[in-house]
Structures are given as C-alpha cells and as structure tokens.
Amino acid sequence: MATMTIRNIDDDVKARLRVRAAQHGRSMEEEARSILRTALATDPRPGTGATLVADIRALVEPFGGVELELPPRTPMPAPPDFSEGRSGE
Fold first, then answer.
1. Inside any domain, residue 80
2. Contact at 8 Å (CB) between 60 and 66?
3. Domain assignment present for 45
4. Which of 35, 43, 60, 85 has the fewest CB atoms found within 10 Å of its own CB?
C-alpha cells in the first residue's frame, strides 16, 4: 500500500471531514480513503474519453445524429522550398 500526505487543507474542509468521519464511526484517514474510493469508482478511467463521447452522443442523438459533407480527397501539394537563393519563385 502507498502512503500519501495532503498538505494545505482548508480548516473548514478538515472540520467537515472530522464530523463526517465521526458520523460514520471512522478515523479521518479512513473517511478520506472511503471518499477517494467512492469518487474514483464512479468515474470512467482517465484517458478513455468515454464521458465526452457519451455527452456528445446524448446531444446529437435527438436530432438523428450529425452528417458532415466531407470534401473529396486531393493529392497533397508539394511542400514549399526554403532553400537559399530561391526567393519569390
């Protein structure tokens, strides 16, 4: 198990944690662990984009989705020549 120290907690937050821990019959440390476990269990894994995708889908589904007209693909233009002595061509 890892150990973590949290510094600069507001006095009000610490007092509320103490009260909440007492209500649940736990130490402040165990209450903080419980809060972290609960908060992290309900969120999707970071980096999956699952929440963003679901939110976008919920916005556009009532309208039948979104259809985008994509322009036809064309060959990539030649890159500019930045070599010396070729100005203004």
1. no
2. yes
3. yes
4. 85
Q: Which residues of 40-75 are buried (b: 16+ CB within 10 A; e: fewer)?
A: eeeeeeeeeeeeeeeeeeeeeeeeeeeeeeeeeeee
The vertex-78 CA angle with 72 and 79, nearest 5°, equals 120
What predicted TM-score, i.e. pTM, was given to this entire model?
Answer: 0.49
Q: Is residue 53 part of a domain?
A: yes
Q: Please give the residue range of the domain that contains residue 32.
A: 11-58
Per residue in 37-78, pLDDT (tens digit) is 988 887 666 666 778 888 888 888 888 877 788 889 999 999
Number of domains in the chain: 1
Whether 44 and 50 have beta carbons less than 8 Å apart is answered as: yes
